[in-house]
Amino acid sequence: MKTLNNFPENNRGLSRRSFVKTAASGAAALTIVPSFAVSGLGHKAPSDKLLIAAIGCGGEGADDIRHYAIAPKKNAEIALLCDVDDRQAAPRIKEFPKAKFYHDWREMFDRESRNFDAVSVAIPDHNHAVVGLAAMQLKKHLYLQKPLTHDIYEARVLTKASEKYRVVTQMGDQGASCGGMRTLREWIEAGVLGEIEKVFCWTDRPVWPQGIPWPESHPAVPKELNWDLWLGTAEETGYIDNLVPFNWRGWWKFGTGALGDMGCHIMGPPFKLLDLGYPVEVSCSASTVYTGIFKEGVFPESGPVSSSIRFKYNLKNGKNLDLYWMDGGITPERPYEIEPDLNMNDVMGDWPGLNDYEGATLFIGTKGKAACGWGGRNPILLPLSLNKDLKIPEKYPRVEGDMDGHWWQWIDACIAGYGNMEVDSPFVGYAGPLTETVLMGNLLLRCFNIQKKISRKDPVYGEMEGLVFPGRYMSYKWDGENMRITNFEAANQFVKREYRKGWGEMKI
Question: Residue 191 sits in which domain range?
Fold first, then answer.
């Protein structure tokens, strides 16, 4: 089969030449002219309205769609809907009866490419990249949920593609647009914290089953779900119960664990505000469980119950900075500035009173400490008494709607055209490198379970068979530019994965 940009022809839709020709001939028949016809030149469409194809209708997808629908300028329209699960799609189909519905995004792109300007993607992590790249190859602006991709290599490809195809991109980490992020920047630039020496990031995730063996049973596929389309790029496997629509996050075949779910939100503030770039060295530890005497339960298909990771950065001022990530209930040491009877997570920016500590970030500087909730929201100085009379002028304009404005900002930027308006989480310079860094942590966690079988004679229990783990408790040196671990070759297998036959490959 003839291919274009490494995607099968029936998956890629129209060629560029036929695409332009068809768009020109069909434009007059449309009530609303899609803005792609002119926005690439920096002009607005006659309608000033962005036509969006939404892929993924439940969970985060439902929230994305809701934000487009309530945009204050009323400058977005849900033109198309796509989901592999009728149960997730049903409410959105009812809510947007004029939007044409598809199960297969490839078919939608083939048939409808002239009828939408932009694509919004909120589906399981393992299919993010292949959909996002195909959208950009059609010159469609792209809103892609965090993390951008499942693999480091995919993030690099999407970043380069956004420049090549000159489309407006935004990752779905809404905290990047919140006022708290700007407040923190103003504090740091005013010297309130001094030089930042350490950063701690943590979350209560995972809040789904993780650190468990791969399921042995494969029940019948629900009639509402197209399992083959749901698998997409992942290797073929029988249906797994209780996986859809949420618990896929804990399996490396599909998800990216606690880091993938919350890392972009929680590591985003230091990454953006401190201009961190790629780490140079990374080390980790993770929880272990035992199923017998000296018999460790090793479940390489699943992420660990909890983990702790240290990212080392070389700063532009010549100094080093350590960023610590913790999940699964692990937190940094309690700052002495917080009164003993106060809940540390509540104080440091999380949702007070809820048993859901989504995350927090703590900046430790030479002059002081500051903390915020996920995405930079609700920033505070420690001790809390410092916040009472703090008067730092607002230097940076706030986004209308705060976090809600993250979606609306992208809409406005798409209508303005590529290069004419900034967004807070573009792939180039921010979302792409941030995603690579987050996934770097997952690479180490997967290396944690690389194993070799050995036999040994124990002085108490006699002859025993066991395992050794050559990838544990070492410090990995990372060549970010070339996407390679330089001191443990086995780790590089996790930089890029192979797609299931028929699903193309990530090349631009």
Answer: 178-217+220-398+437-445
